[in-house]
């Protein structure tokens, strides 16, 4: 090892120690020969890495060119912020890796140690961020292949899932059978959550099914006093004004967008411009408080849906009722469709601050009111036969509408709305392919980062022992080159996976 | 340390390889971070789906070039290493290009239910041998 004929004629003899470097192998002419051979080797390895990853890029490009809609939908599941942080972290670590090479070349021992340590720290940060991203996806079942069964849409709207595995909302039902006073067979829910699909007709849920129609009724408002002497308005129906508006709020998932427009209304002198849209669908789902659970049924943003899970269990019925009342008060405003009314088996009315074209053009009708009536027939108890009979129908609630106007949505609002509806719906078919590709690409890249950490730890240990000198810094240079290619691949992965427009 | 201080100021071939100057390192790192911000900002603006993709890819290619030239020293390295690396990229480009060209040459696979087969193909039939 020490008997090197050329070492004595070293061009850079001023270093004086190149010839005694114990890390220069005897089969190389000198340190430079060894370095150049190593460098050629690492470049061949990097070329191989490019080809290695190119297979996954081909899969990505091919699938994206055939199914752009999947990418547009699915990338919203990814957190751009996390991706951007990781990009910055990797770029910074690339800088420190490159600086480590410089420090080794210039024999700046402390700087070398600092650069190597920073590179390791950045690589670990990268993996920690990845860990959070991956665990979130595991939790929400946003996984590859058949494991893709997301609990939420790509804008975090809860979804009904196929396998019913989501935490919180869609676990299995724990129940026990009880026999109540009327000897009816009731399954009391003791815990767990309801699968989305079971809410309607499942006998395990005490509830009522009925055929309901929703009518819009016009008439004159009449001042009245309620039992407590408080001034209220009732509506005297104009004969023939009844209009069937059942399912007027179309299901945007199946039938396209709901109605456009924003209504500004003044109810009891209070001006409101709700962002909600008219939406009347008969509710088959009562607010069940009997077992300490309730299931709100909401119409928001032009979309009517039952709650996917329900809330509870609550310790007491009182707590459940107050929770239910909270939920009902949240529904106040345009498009309010209160929970439970229909299922109680009688007709009830809900104040709806609704205004149409005809009315807008006839300001003389200012005192005219509109109400929405839900008429249900054939209410069939399911599970808890007498519970709802005992509950009287809710009183008619009508307010005084003084002024109203309607404006069209701006382009921006329209765009936003379409956007929200699109991304709140279920994923397009084959979306699992995006995540198969996502996990393959980021996973393989992550493995490279992990390997990089081990390599840099090894280099850090060697650096503390003072192994690296201006004559012998090949390992640092080669590891840095490897690290740069890892960074380079991420530079492409970031916009391709996280920044799809 | 004192003997190496003069190297800090300029690029040169110190010993057995090129030493990157602090200016080049910081400049490259800074540009990369800046371009990352630009690429995120560009996504927020709607230039049309394909235009946004093109912009993102151009920025990514610029970033990759910066990394390869300066962090990876390819600018100061042997030309042969550039040849190795660029040929790998060309090979990858051929791989992508030919696969894409080929991918549209196939019909979609029709999967149908056995009880509901698709209509029989229209066209000349083979005459049964007599």
Please provide a written account of the structure.
The complex is a heterodimer of chains A (501) and B (130). Chain A has 501 residues and is an alpha+beta fold. Chain A has 10 helices and 12 strands. In chain A, the strands form 4 sheets. In chain A, strands 3, 4, 5, 10 and 11 form a 5-stranded antiparallel beta sheet that branches. In chain A, strands 7-6-12 form a 3-stranded antiparallel beta sheet, with no helix packed on it. Chain A has a two-stranded antiparallel ribbon with strand order 1-2. Chain A is elongated, with a radius of gyration of 34 Å. The model of chain A is unreliable at 1-18, 167-212, 247-263, 273-310, 328-367 and 376-405 (pLDDT under 50). In chain B, helix 1 packs antiparallel against helix 2 (49-71). In chain B, a hairpin with a 2-residue loop joins strand 1 (12-14) and strand 2. Mean pLDDT of chain B is 80; it is low at 1-12. The N and C termini of chain B lie far apart (99 Å). Chain B is built from 3 helices and 2 strands; from the N terminus they run E-E-H-H-H. Chain B is mainly alpha-helical and 130 residues long. Chain B has a two-stranded antiparallel sheet. Helices cover 55% and strands 5% of the residues of chain B. At the A-B interface, helix 1, helix 3 and helix 10 of A face helix 1, helix 2 and helix 3 of B.
List the helices and strands and how they pair.
The complex is a heterodimer of chains A (501) and B (130).
Chain A (H helix, E strand, L loop, with lengths): L30 H36 L1 H7 L5 H26 L3 H31 L33 E7 L5 E8 L14 E19 L5 E7 L5 E2 L7 H4 L6 E6 L2 E3 L24 E4 L2 E4 L10 H14 L17 E4 L5 H4 L7 E15 L18 E7 L3 H14 L7 H33 L9 H25 L3
Antiparallel strand pairs in A: 1-2, 3-4, 3-5, 3-11, 6-7, 6-12, 8-9, 10-11
Helix pairs in contact in A: 1-2, 1-9, 1-10, 3-4, 3-10, 4-9, 9-10
Chain B lengths: L11 E3 L2 E3 L2 H23 L4 H23 L7 H25 L27
Antiparallel strand pairs in B: 1-2
Helix pairs in contact in B: 1-2
């Amino acid at each position: 090892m020490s008997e090197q004929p050329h070492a004595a004629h070293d061009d850079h003899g001023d270093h004086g120690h190149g010839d005694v470097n114990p890390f220069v192998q005897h089969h190389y002419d000198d340190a430079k020969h060894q370095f150049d051979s190593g460098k050629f080797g690492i470049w061949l390895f990097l070329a191989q890495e490019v080809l290695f990853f190119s297979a996954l890029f081909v899969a990505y490009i091919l699938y994206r060119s055939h199914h752009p809609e999947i990418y547009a939908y699915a990338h919203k599941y990814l957190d751009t912020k996390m991706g951007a942080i990781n990009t910055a972290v990797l770029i910074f670590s690339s800088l420190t890796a490159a600086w480590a090479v410089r420090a080794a070349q210039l024999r700046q021992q402390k700087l070398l140690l600092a650069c190597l340590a920073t590179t390791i720290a950045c690589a670990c940060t990268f993996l920690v961020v990845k860990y959070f991203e991956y665990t979130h996806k595991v939790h929400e079942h946003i996984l590859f292949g058949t494991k893709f069964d997301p609990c939420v849409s790509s804008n975090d709207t809860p979804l009904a899932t196929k396998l019913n595995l989501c935490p919180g909302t869609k676990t299995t039902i724990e129940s026990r059978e009880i026999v109540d006073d009327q000897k009816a067979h009731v399954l009391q829910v003791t815990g767990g959550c309801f699968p989305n699909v079971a809410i309607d007709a499942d006998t395990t849920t005490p509830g009522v099914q009925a055929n309901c129609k929703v009518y819009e009724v016009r008439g004159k408002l009449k001042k009245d006093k309620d039992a407590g002497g408080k001034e209220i308005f009732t509506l005297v129906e104009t004969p023939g004004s009844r209009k069937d508006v059942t399912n007027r709020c179309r299901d945007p998932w199946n039938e396209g967008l709901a109605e456009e427009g924003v209504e500004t209304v003044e109810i009891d002198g209070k001006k409101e411009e709700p962002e909600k849209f008219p939406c009347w669908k008969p509710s088959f789902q009562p607010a069940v408080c009997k077992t300490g659970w309730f299931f709100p049924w909401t119409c928001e943003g032009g979309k009517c849906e039952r709650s996917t899970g329900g809330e509870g269990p609550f310790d007491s019925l009182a707590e459940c009722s107050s929770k239910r009342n909270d939920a009902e008060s949240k529904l106040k405003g345009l498009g309010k469709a209160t929970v439970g009314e229909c299922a109680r088996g009688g007709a009830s009315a809900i104040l709806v601050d609704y205004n149409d074209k005809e009315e807008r053009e006839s300001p003389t009708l200012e005192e005219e009111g509109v109400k929405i009536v839900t008429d249900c027939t054939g209410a069939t108890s399911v599970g808890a036969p007498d519970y709802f009979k005992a509950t009287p129908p809710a009183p008619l609630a009508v307010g005084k509408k003084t002024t109203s106007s309607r404006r069209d949505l701006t382009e921006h609002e329209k765009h936003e709305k379409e956007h929200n509806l699109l991304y709140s719906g279920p994923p397009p078919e084959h979306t699992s392919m995006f995540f198969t590709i996502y996990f393959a690409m980021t996973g393989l890249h992550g493995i490279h980062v992990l390997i990089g950490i081990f390599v840099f730890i090894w280099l850090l240990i060697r650096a503390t022992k003072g192994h690296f000198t201006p004559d012998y810094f090949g390992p640092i240079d080669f590891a840095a080159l490897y690290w740069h290619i890892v960074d380079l691949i991420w530079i492409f992965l970031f916009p391709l996976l996280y920044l799809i427009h | 340390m004192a003997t190496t201080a003069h190297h800090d100021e300029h690029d040169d071939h110190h010993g057995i390889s090129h030493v990157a100057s602090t200016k080049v390192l910081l400049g490259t790192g800074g540009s990369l971070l800046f371009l990352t911000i630009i690429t995120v900002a560009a996504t927020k603006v709607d230039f049309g789906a394909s235009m946004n993709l093109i912009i993102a890819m151009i920025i990514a290619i610029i970033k990759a070039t910066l990394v390869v030239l300066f962090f990876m020293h390819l600018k100061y390295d042997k030309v042969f290493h550039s040849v190795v690396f660029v040929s790998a990229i060309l090979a990858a480009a051929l791989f992508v290009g030919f696969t894409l060209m080929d991918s549209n040459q196939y019909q979609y696979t029709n999967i149908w239910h056995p009880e509901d087969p698709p209509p029989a193909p229209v066209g000349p039939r083979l005459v049964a041998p007599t």
